[in-house]
Amino acid sequence: MAGLGLVDLVDDTTYRVNVITAHMVAVPSSLDGMLHFSTEPVWAAAFLMKQLRDTNFKYPFQENKTPTQYGYKLIGEERFANQHTYSIMHSQGRMPSFSRFMEGKFGKFGTMPDRVKSLGYDLDSVMNGKADDIVVVDIGGGRGEMLLEVKAAYPHLKKENLVLQEFQPDRVNEDDLTIQHWDFKDDSPETVKGALVYSLTHIYHNLSDLEALRLMKKVADAMAPHSTMLIHEFAKNSTYGKMHATMITLYAGRIRSSREWKQLAALAGLEVTFEAYPVAGEGLVEMRKLPTANGAV
Ligand SMILES: C[S@@+](CC[C@H](N)C(=O)[O-])C[C@H]1O[C@@H](n2cnc3c(N)ncnc32)[C@H](O)[C@@H]1O
């Protein structure tokens, strides 16, 4: 980091942030972010070329066969050689710091309700739709920060209206949210049917096309005609080139373009009904069930 000009040398053993990195310290979650971005992606990048050469440049990667697992295989840590990168991080005790990073990231682009409204999305109409018990399900929602933002914007929503689904749920916000264990990669379906909103923030970019389609199909199967799927992700643009590369080497995932979202939606029986791709910050893709020829869904 010192060599990159990101910190200043104070004495032989001490460094401090400088003008380039000072803003990161103002966002506490950035410290966890720096920990992760200077470890897992660097680890994976170190084995990328070796894996490509050893496999005659076989690509795309399979999700448990990325350079992350290849590195562990090469150093003889067989227990990680076939595990998903999230499972490896869990086994290594890295998920609490990863979840802390996710809470504030490297800085935020406003709360979810404010952000989507600034993109021209009419969240109020969606939230005032047909009143089901479950209003928002946040799939892979970390500690539930986004749902708390929704609750702050729509204070009438109660714990039973807001469902957090995670595969290793941290119950820190249990008083305000309904917290469910769901490993969306196993064979179980989405059990919450007919919610108003199924929200996925930075989830699909962790997944290969096939795995993304598999999850999208599970959510589509649970959706009712009034349901929406809201996908919050960074756009596929030059701002997020490094993010795209990181998703490939850690998870065999990818950032997706409008065309790719529409292809996935069509395969899952959905259609893209709103999309916004800002230069910086999370974009928004809304999908709804595709009406059939006779108008049923
Ligand atoms: C990149 S983080 C995004 C967290 C949160 N949505 C946000 O944007 O701050 C991905 C999340 O997906 C969760 N996750 C990963 N694999 C999962 C699985 N198989 N089932 C459920 N959740 C999973 C992780 O625990 C993590 O919280």
Automatic annotation (TrEMBL):
Q: Does the keyword GTP-binding apply?
A: no
Q: Which GO terms describe its biological process?
A: methylation
Domain O-methyltransferase C-terminal residue range list? 136-270
Specify the superkingdom: Eukaryota
- Identify the Pfam families for this entry: Methyltransf_2
Q: Which UniProt keyword terms apply here?
A: Methyltransferase, S-adenosyl-L-methionine, Transferase
Coiled-coil region? none
The answer to whether keyword Methyltransferase applies is yes
Protein name as it appears in the record: O-methyltransferase C-terminal domain-containing protein
Species of origin reads Cladophialophora yegresii CBS 114405
GO molecular function terms noted in the UniProt entry: O-methyltransferase activity
Q: Extract the signal peptide range.
A: none
